Amino acid sequence: MPELDIDALVFDVLGTLVDEPSGLRAGIRALDLSLDDAGTEPLLLLWQQHIEREQRRILDGDRPYLASDALDREAAGLVAGAAGVDDPAAVAALALSARRLPPWPDTVAGLARLAERFPLIGLSNASRTALLGLNAHAGLRWHQALSAEDARAYKPDPEVYRLAVTVSGLPPERLLMVAAHAWDLRGAQRLGLRTAYVARPVGDPPTASDRFDLYADGLADLADQLDTRHGRKRSARG
Questions:
Q1: Nearest to residue 194, comparing CAs of 7, 2, 56?
Q2: Does residue 71 carry a pLDDT above 60?
Q3: pLDDT for res 236
Q4: What pLDDT, on the 0 to 100 scale, is given for residue 70?
Q5: What angle do CA 126, 131, 135 make, to 5 degrees?
Q6: Which candidate, 155, 157, 206, places its Cα nearest to that of 11?
Q7: Positive or negative CA dihedral for 89, 136, 179, 200?
């Protein structure tokens, strides 16, 4: 098995390290305690579709840039309206649920293990303020956390991935982008980053035409593969 010669890991956050749908479901249920699963799922879909559509409009130049906080407030207003709730305080609380997302069971330990060998960079479409809340709530530990807000764009715009290249001071091919979304990894590939797909219950699985450097079942599997693919060079450095 050939070595994978990398010097730092770059992680997507939403969906890859935290369970975004579960956190949003909890916020929606708090909005209306009478909601059951059948009532919650359409509202969750409404939220997700709004965020995806508006980020795409921004990327296409059809709308001026707005940070994720503003898009979350818009989505919360739509969901609350659909649920028949017009309390501004409840809508504001729902918007903040986008920052209270639980980590996947292997996230905290997996990051700790990987951080023993590599610098870890978080790279998220979440705003700077939202990313701070996400990191604190989920217990994420980074050497550097970067928000797409600094590029005034959203992934997969290449300028977002360029943030990690610039901060690391490394050539793109020495960075490994880790994500549960194939579209995210394709965006990183276009800028020359190496790529690792990590399977999650939510996300965007690879297609038959995707060619990523690593495919992992979780962060422990990713760490095991990096031990094998990257071990000899690290050992030689002492």
A1: 7
A2: yes
A3: 36
A4: 97
A5: 140
A6: 155
A7: negative
For residues 210 and 226, what is the distance between their CA atoms, to the nearest angstrom? 20
**Spatial contact of 200 and 15, defined as CB atoms under 8 Å apart:** yes
Concatenate the DSSP letters of all residues of the chain into one string: ------SEEEE--BTTTB-HHHHHHHHHHHH-TT--HHHHHHHHHHHHHHHHHHHHHHHTTSS----HHHHHHHHHHHHHHHHT---HHHHHHHHHGGG--PBPTTHHHHHHHHHTTS-EEEEESS-HHHHHHHHHHHT---SEEEEGGGGTS-TTSHHHHHHHHHHHTS-GGGEEEEESBHHHHHHHHHTT-EEEEE--SSSB---TT---SEEESSHHHHHHHHHHHHHHHHHHH-
